[in-house]
Description:
There is one protein chain. The chain is globular. With about 230 residues, the chain is of the alpha+beta class. The protein is built from six helices and twelve strands. The longest helix has 12 residues, at about 70-80. It has one domain: Pseudouridine synthase, CATH 3.30.2350.10. A hairpin with a 3-residue loop joins strand 9 (about 130-140) and strand 10 (about 140-150). The strands form two sheets. Strands 1, 2, 3, 4, 5, 6, 9, 10, 11 and 12 form a ten-stranded mixed beta sheet that branches. The chain has a two-stranded antiparallel sheet with strand order 7-8.
Amino acid sequence: MSEIILKEILLYEDDDLLVINKPSGILSIEDGFDRNKYNLRSALKKTYGNIWTVHRLDKDTSGVIIFAKNQESHRQLNLSFSNRIIEKNYRSIVIGFPFWDSIEIKLPLKINGDRKHRTIFDPTYGKPAFTRIVKIINNDQFAYMDVFPTTGLTHQIRAHLSTIGFPILGDSLYWRCCEIINYSESERLAFFLHARSIKFYHPSSKELMLISAPLPYLFSEMLKKLKFL
């Protein structure tokens, strides 16, 4: 992927925080096996020097991600995540026709649970995982969802949605039928999960912050094609 343009993805900045609208297709941080792979944190360090990782988004997930500019902000934000006083809101297009308006998913998940290194439902060895889903609109094939994860396990949203039968459009890792066909090449490579907003208390001022990221172009265009916008 081409180099990011900082001014196009910067959502908020002060002495303590750096909040970015991460594009899809970019790693959040350095790869554990190949540290030379292009990633957001390394790209930002060229401008800001050392920054601290607060949380991560999957490579194909776009949207709001926070980095700390100093160790104390990093510590305070980590405490907020650990104590679950941060509210994250995702938007997703899923395959399926839900008859419910909202649902709370409380299925324990095991990370790296199969040969494809997926996060899987495991009632015996899985860790507690909680996700609340609110249906925004649907037709007879797809639905547009508001997603509120309380816990933050790797691939939690993807695993929970696929387990209950509503896999994310474009997520062929968790459900092969989700591969997109009969669309343009860029649409076929798209992944329709976006970190729409995050609500948290500022680590220094303690002010309640709400930072949102606009939907990516391809995401908005797909909503129009499905007549959801």
